[in-house]
Write a structure and sequence with these properties.
Shape: rod-shaped
Number of strands: 15
Radius of gyration: 41 Å
Strand content: 25-35%
Helix content: 25-40%
């Protein structure tokens, strides 16, 4: 008898528990609506709270084409605040934002469903779209330069060829009339980001300013200067195009100065070699050997650096200048040999050997690089 009573007691408890749970979840509307928010990004958020709902589904009456959406709620035993967000990827269209979800609009209605319990909301005009306040008005902004990977390259002295984005350092309010100019010429862009193409030899001064529709917010003009790392030159073979010597101005400067230094070192080594073959002694031989070694080391360093840092056209230009100086010296090599023989330099042949060796090295480099 006692065992039967225990079974009945358990059955009664379960019945009461499920009855309570059913009434707690479905006997009354446990979903409450708070507000609809229009975000600056163009999305909308429907916010509310609920008790005892494991899932909430929103059914749209107006606009009727906005898809239903369901969110799950993990805590069903306490009051839980929830947010359902709609973006363009969820079916929210610009037309809906204009017709139904502008600030203060009441032209929308929907139903909320807690699992199997419907809590329909009828918009009697008391429900309206809430908008977040606009960001504060910045008196001025700093312009930044971003590359195609959105990496900040503002600090770069020059830019590689390509498309860049000029953007502002702070958020510009939506109600601003934005004005861009490139080299004092107005640009038609009205966004707070400007796309700029950089090509050979480009140098651009970009200016930004903005003023609100009601003239209460004015952003003072800000400007930035950008330029291409690739210099333009009109010395093409046909006299008409651009010849690009380098992508880094510092490399151009180094190789130009280096070419002059190489010519100077060659002349010094050439003179010291003449002294060594005409008056051979320990001092003159050591001086000539050091000068020749220094010249060869400088030539190899200049060759390896400039060949990798300059464009092929730029490297060939400087290499040809060096070769031209050596060619002029070689043109007088016969006369030099004759004079050395007359003054009694029995080892004059070493001077001609040195000259022809250097000419051969430079000529081979020219051939290898197609110069």
């Amino acid at each position: 008898m006692k065992k039967k009573l225990n079974i009945c007691t358990k059955a009664l408890c379960l019945t009461i528990f499920f009855f309570y749970l059913n009434n707690f979840s479905y006997g009354q509307c446990n979903v409450k609506y708070i507000q609809t928010i229009l975000e600056e990004s163009g999305s909308i958020k429907i916010q509310g709270y609920s008790i005892g709902c494991g899932a909430i589904t929103i059914h749209w009456n107006n606009p009727s084409t906005l898809p239903n959406k369901t969110i799950n709620i993990s805590d069903v035993f306490h009051e839980a605040t929830w947010t359902i967000e709609y973006q363009s990827s969820d079916g929210l269209t610009p037309q809906m934002l204009t017709d139904n979800f502008q600030c203060g609009s009441t032209n929308f209605s929907f139903g909320l469903q807690c699992q199997n319990q419907s809590c329909f909301i009828t918009n009697d005009g008391s429900l309206s779209v809430t908008c977040k306040p606009p960001p504060p008005c910045p008196s001025e902004v700093i312009l930044k330069v971003l590359n195609e990977n959105d990496i900040d390259v503002t600090a770069s002295e020059c830019l590689e060829n390509g498309t860049y984005k000029i953007t502002t350092s702070v958020v510009v309010p939506n109600n601003m009339n934005i004005h861009w100019s490139i080299n004092a010429i107005n640009d038609n862009s009205t966004n707070d980001t400007l796309s700029v193409l950089i090509e050979n030899g480009d140098a651009k001064d970009i200016s930004f300013t903005a003023i609100s529709n009601d003239n209460t917010c004015i952003i003072l003009p800000s400007s930035i200067h950008i330029e291409s790392c690739i210099a333009s030159d009109d010395r093409s073979e046909d006299g008409g195009g651009d010849v690009v010597f380098c992508t880094d101005p510092a490399a151009c400067n180094f190789c130009a100065i280096g070419m002059v230094v190489l010519i100077f070192l060659f002349i010094i080594s050439f003179i010291l070699l003449i002294a060594a073959v005409c008056a051979p002694n320990q001092a003159t031989i050591i001086a000539a050997s050091l000068a020749i070694g220094l010249f060869l080391a400088a030539l190899i360093t200049w060759w390896l650096y400039c060949a990798s840092s300059l464009t092929p056209e730029g490297f060939c230009f400087y290499l040809n200048q060096l070769w031209l100086v050596l060619a002029w010296i070689s043109a007088f090599s016969g006369l030099i040999a004759l004079l050395l023989t007359v003054i009694g330099c029995p080892l004059a042949v070493w001077v001609l050997t040195y000259l022809s060796t250097i000419m051969g090295i430079v000529s081979l480099i020219k051939y290898f690089y197609g110069c």
